[in-house]
Amino acid sequence: MTLLAVVAVALGVVAQNSSKAPESKSDQYDATSKLLYELDTETLEAVIKDWASLMPGQVYTQTELIVPAYFEVKSLGISMGGDSQSSKKVYVVEIGEKAFYGAEAASVVFADGSKVRIIRKQGLANMPNMKGTLTLPASLKALEASAVLLPDITKLVFLGTEAPECMLEEGYNSWTANGVATPKDVEVVVPDGSLAAYKKKVGIGNYFTNIHTQSNKYLVVFYDEDGVTELQSVETVYGTVPAYTGAEPAKAEDENYTYTFDGWDKTLSAVTGDVVYKATYKATAKTVTAVETPAAEEQEVQKTVDNGVLYIIRGGVRYDARGQRVAQ
After folding, report:
1. Is the model's pLDDT at 211 over the cut of 60?
2. Scanning 115, 125, 244, 313, which has its CA 20 to 30 A from the CA of 69?
3. What is the pTM of this model?
C-alpha cells in the first residue's frame, strides 16, 4: 500500500471517529510538503499536526521539514466561500501540539510569507538530528510552555521585530521540560532595532545569555547611580566603543553636599557582549558662612538712668557705671 493510500485510510478512520469535531474542521494531507494538518474551512486556516495523531508511534521522516505559508486546497464538496470546484489558499497559522515531536529532520524551514502565530507544547521537540540553526518567522506571536526543546541547535534566529510571548506552565518555560532544554547559551539573533525589546521579554531576555542583532550588535545600557534609572540604551556593533549621547546625568543636592557628574563606573571600552555602565558623582561640601557677633567696641551703646542710677546698655545687656553686668 502506498503512502498516500495509508494516509487516505487513516484520514477516513479519523473522519468516522470525529463526530464531535466541528463540521468546519477536518484532517488533511499535503502531498507536496508531506505534512498533516487540520483544515478549518470557515477561517481558511490550517494547524500542522503530528503523524502520531493518525498512526500511533509514527513521526515525520523527511530530512528537511518545510512549513509552507499556505496549502492550495480544493473544497472537497464543502462550501469554502466561493465556487465549490475552485482552490483556496489555506494559511498555516499554528504548529500544533507535538507536531514535529521526534521528527527525523535535520532542519525546519518556515517558507517566506509565513503566517504562523503560535507554536504549541512540544511542537518542535526531541528532534535528534536538529543540530544547526532554527529560524522562527516574523509572524510568530507566542510560544507555549515547552514549545521548543532542541538541545543540540547552535543558533536561534527570530525574524519578528516584536518579541513573542513565552508562556509558563507548571514551572516550565517555552524552552524547557522534563530535563530537556534548548541551551541557555545558544546564539540568539534578533532584528536590528529590537534588541532592547527582546532583552526585556520574560522567557527570552532572562533565559538566553547570548543575544545580539543581525548586524552583530549588543546592548549597551547607561544607568544612573542607582542602577535602576535607565538613561540610555544603544545597540552597539561588536568591537566598537559605545558613546553616550543623552543629557548629562544629574544628582540633586542635599543638606550638606552638591553633586557633579564624574563619569561612569568603568571605562567605556570595545563591546564584546552586553554591558552596563552606571553614573558616578563627585560630592562637594557646602560652604557654611558663620554669623559673627560684633566686637564689644563695635556694638551699639545706649545710656539710661533708672531711679537716679546711670546704666549702660551694650548689645542688649545692662551694665553699671563700673562695667559690671546688672540683672534686668
Report:
1. yes
2. 125
3. 0.72
